[in-house]
Specification:
Number of strands: 3
Mean pLDDT: 76
Strand order of the largest sheet: 2-1-3
Strand content: 5-15%
Largest sheet: 3 strands, parallel
Order of helices and strands: HEHEHEHH
CATH class: Alpha Beta
Structural class: mainly alpha
Helix content: 40-55%
Radius of gyration: 13 Å
C-alpha cells in the first residue's frame, strides 16, 4: 500500500484513536498500533509497518505495530488501555464500545499542548 493511498486510512485511524488513546500514552514510550488478526500476522506486519512508520512521522513519536492473537484479545487490549491506536472492524467496534464505552475527548492530546 503506497503512502498516498494510505492517507484516508491514516485519517480514519487518527479519528479512531480519539476513542481509545489513553491519557498517559504520550508520556515517554512509543505508541502502539494494534491490528486484529484478520489474516496471518506476517502479512499484517508487511501491510501495516509502513502505516506505523508514517503515523510515527506525522505524530512525531515512534509507533510500534502489534498484531493481536485473537479478536477477543484485541478488544481486551484496547479496553484496558494497552493500545494507543487500533485498526478494527465494525463488529469489534460495537463490542468494544458496548463493554468499555465510547471516548471522544482525546484527539486533542495529539495536537494541543496541555499546560
Amino acid at each position: 500500500m503506497s503512502l498516498p493511498r494510505m492517507k484516508p486510512l491514516v485519517i480514519i485511524l487518527l479519528l479512531l484513536s480519539v476513542l481509545i488513546l489513553p491519557k498517559t500514552s504520550l508520556a515517554g514510550k512509543p505508541l502502539v498500533l494494534c491490528v486484529h488478526p484478520y489474516m496471518p500476522a506476517t502479512e499484517i506486519t508487511k501491510r501495516f509497518s509502513p502505516l506505523a512508520h508514517y503515523l510515527g512521522m506525522v505524530i512525531g513519536k515512534p509507533v510500534t505495530l502489534m498484531v493481536a492473537n485473537s479478536y477477543e484479545e484485541h478488544i481486551k487490549l484496547i479496553g484496558s488501555n494497552k493500545v494507543d491506536i487500533a485498526f478494527l472492524g465494525p463488529s469489534s467496534y460495537v463490542i468494544l464500545t458496548a463493554r468499555h464505552g465510547a471516548r471522544g475527548d482525546l484527539l486533542k492530546k495529539l495536537f494541543v499542548k496541555s499546560p
